[in-house]
């Protein structure tokens, strides 16, 4: 059993390591002005999902009081995810033929099938998540833990549907969700954000040794489960889109308030809290922009800011903050103090996004590029930090 656990732990780190590399590639793509499709793929399929896949293999079985049924599943999934992301990112470039994207979609979906099949088999007799693995000393956390568990199968259902329609988009058929932003919202809001909510309500109270307000949990999870479906069905306009945007906004704001409440209540001074707090604030900005689109229509400059804030600000900084909780910077050997390096990387990543937004708003390309360069420094700093920590662990 120890060998199986070690295998999962090793491949979890490899998924997370791959995610850091994808983040750097996203930053370079954004700075180089590559097409939006390529940029979104690198950030979402590359950085966000590689990290989420890795941590899900390690965390979800324990949250359902089970052990991963096939410890070697990540070894099959990772190359499929990497190659699939390469194909999907490359097809965004004008000189790359569509068949590359089709191959990427098939590889990506093959990896998703391994992931979902493994987790489904692992928790097959506890699909509702009623068994949480929560010890008696944390009995008061069980209601929140059960609610958080119940959201995870919904997130995985979004992932299955989104992956299927991604493949269908490359087939000569009238595919559902043909409008690409609809598919993106299935992946980003339906799967990634809902996973952040569900896993976050299990992880963060323990990281901060605090209790989230139960009414906020009761709002964030169901609204976060319903909102993305309505958005994906109704983009880019109309009353239904406005309803979906409102539901998602309520969910994200409730999650942000819960996160900030945990941080204020906590007496644990750890550097990861700053990333998680910044991610929560970016989430509020994301849904504020979403509401503006639902009410006033789409604006291209703000659409770019919307997806950068969502993928790298909200999801990204939350991931960076949580990653530094799992992998404390103090264990690495760096030219500067690990915590200071982590804080600088978070500040550069978040600050760069804000400067980029300001430049776009003022129509100052040079300012926007300074922001993207700053974000690239943050991405490189985060990658250097995590990979350095992993190198230090490997030497032990």
Structure description:
With 396 residues, this protein is an all-alpha fold. The protein has helices spanning 2-32, 36-63, 73-90, 98-122, 142-168, 180-208, 214-234, 239-265, 272-296, 300-326, 338-361, 365-395. α2 crosses α6 (180-208) and α3 (73-90) runs antiparallel to α4 (98-122). The longest helix is centred in the N-terminal third of the chain and has 31 residues, at 2-32. It is globular, with a radius of gyration of 20 Å. The chain starts with a helix and ends with a helix.
Count the strands? 0
Shape label: globular
Number of helices: 12
CA radius of gyration is: 20 Å
Q: Could you give a short account of the major beta sheet? A: none
Order of helices and strands: HHHHHHHHHHHH
Percentage of helical residues?
Answer: over 70%
Average residue-wise pLDDT:
92
What is the SS-derived class?
mainly alpha
Sequence stretches where pLDDT stays below 50 over 5 or more residues? none
CA(first)-CA(last) distance? 21 Å
Report strand %.
under 5%
Tell me briefly what this model is.
The protein is mostly helical and 396 residues long. Helices cover 79% and strands 0% of the residues.
Top keywords for this entry?
396 residues; mainly alpha
What's the topology here?
Layout: H1 2-32, H2 36-63, H3 73-90, H4 98-122, H5 142-168, H6 180-208, H7 214-234, H8 239-265, H9 272-296, H10 300-326, H11 338-361, H12 365-395
Helix pairs in contact: 1-2, 1-3, 1-12, 2-3, 2-6, 2-10, 3-4, 4-5, 5-6, 5-7, 6-7, 6-8, 6-10, 7-8, 8-9, 9-10, 9-11, 10-11, 11-12
């Amino acid at each position: 059993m120890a060998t199986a656990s070690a295998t999962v732990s090793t491949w979890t780190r490899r998924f997370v390591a791959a995610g850091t590399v994808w983040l750097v590639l996203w930053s370079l793509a954004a700075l180089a002005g590559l097409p939006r499709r390529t940029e979104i793929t690198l950030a979402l399929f590359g950085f966000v999902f590689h990290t989420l896949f890795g941590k899900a293999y390690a965390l979800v079985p324990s949250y359902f009081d089970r052990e991963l049924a096939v410890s070697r599943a990540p070894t099959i999934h990772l190359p499929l995810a990497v190659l699939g992301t390469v194909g999907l990112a490359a097809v965004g470039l004008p000189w790359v033929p569509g068949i590359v994207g089709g191959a990427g979609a098939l590889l990506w979906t093959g990896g998703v099938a391994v992931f979902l099949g493994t987790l489904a088999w692992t928790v097959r007799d506890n699909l509702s998540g009623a068994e949480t693995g929560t010890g008696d000393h944390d009995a008061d956390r069980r209601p929140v833990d059960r609610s958080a568990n119940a959201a995870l199968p919904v997130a995985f259902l979004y992932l299955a549907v989104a992956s299927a329609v991604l493949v269908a988009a490359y087939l000569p058929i009238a595919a559902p969700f043909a409008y690409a932003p609809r598919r993106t919202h299935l992946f980003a809001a339906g799967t990634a954000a809902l996973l952040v909510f569900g896993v976050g309500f299990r992880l963060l109270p323990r990281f901060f040794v605090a209790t989230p307000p139960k009414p906020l949990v009761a709002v964030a999870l169901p609204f976060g489960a319903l909102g993305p479906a309505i958005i994906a069905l109704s983009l880019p306009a109309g009353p239904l889109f406005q309803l979906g945007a409102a539901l998602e906004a309520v969910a994200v704001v409730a999650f942000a308030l819960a996160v900030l409440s945990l941080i204020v209540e906590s007496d644990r001074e750890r550097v990861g809290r700053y990333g998680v707090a910044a991610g929560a604030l970016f989430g509020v900005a994301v849904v504020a922009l979403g509401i503006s689109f639902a009410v006033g229509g789409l604006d291209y400059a703000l659409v770019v800011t919307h997806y950068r804030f969502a993928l790298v600000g909200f999801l990204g900084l939350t991931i960076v903050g949580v990653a530094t909780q799992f992998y404390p910077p103090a264990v690495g050997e760096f030219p500067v103090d690990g915590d200071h390096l982590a804080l600088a990387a978070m500040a550069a990543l978040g600050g760069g996004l804000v400067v980029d937004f300001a430049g776009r708003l003022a129509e100052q390309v040079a300012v926007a590029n300074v922001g993207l360069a700053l974000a690239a420094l943050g991405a490189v700093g985060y990658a250097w930090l995590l990979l350095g920590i992993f190198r230090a662990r490997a030497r032990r």
